Amino acid sequence: MQKAYPGARKWCDAIVLAYSGFGKGILVPFTCPNGPKGKCHYAMNPECTYDSPADMVLLFETKVGWNRRAGPKLFTFDNHDPKGGLVLLNDGTVKFIRTEEELKQLRWK
Questions:
Q1: Hey, which of 12, 54, 83, 89 would disulfide with 93, CB 3.0 to 4.6 Å?
Q2: What are the start-end ranges of the E strands in the chain?
């Protein structure tokens, strides 16, 4: 069995399809409770693959969108008070990033 993440262009759609038995409840993890109204507050780093280093950013917090994919330019600090945003690393670690300096220190490629 080949291990791979969904394609970055349709990553949200792929997760919803794979877990369709959960109904609308599957959409809850896509949103930040403190963020503006919308379907998804996260984007996928298209540079990250299943075999990428453990400390590479896989998903990160952004403005509202669906199937968003990009690098650090789309990261937002605005969904939380105090300011900051979440990143999910390839090994499953979640970090709360508070500053531009912390954001620059993350592995994106």
A1: 89
A2: 42-44, 57-61, 85-89, 94-97
Domain boundaries along the sequence of the chain: 8-105
Reference 108, options 41, 50, 42, 60; nearest CA is 60
Instruction: Kindly report whether the global pTM for this prediction surpasses the value 0.70.
Output: yes
Distance CA 62, CA 87 (A): 10
Only one residue has tokens 């994106």, namely: 108
Per the CB < 8 A criterion, the answer to whether 80 and 34 are in contact is yes
Contact criterion met (CB below 8 Å) for 56 and 107: yes
d(CA 12, CA 73): 20
pLDDT band at 50 (very low <50, low <70, confident <90, very high): very high
* Structure-token pair, residue 61: 């917090």
Mean pLDDT across 78-96: 95
**DSSP one-letter code for 69:** B
Mean pLDDT of 3-28: 83
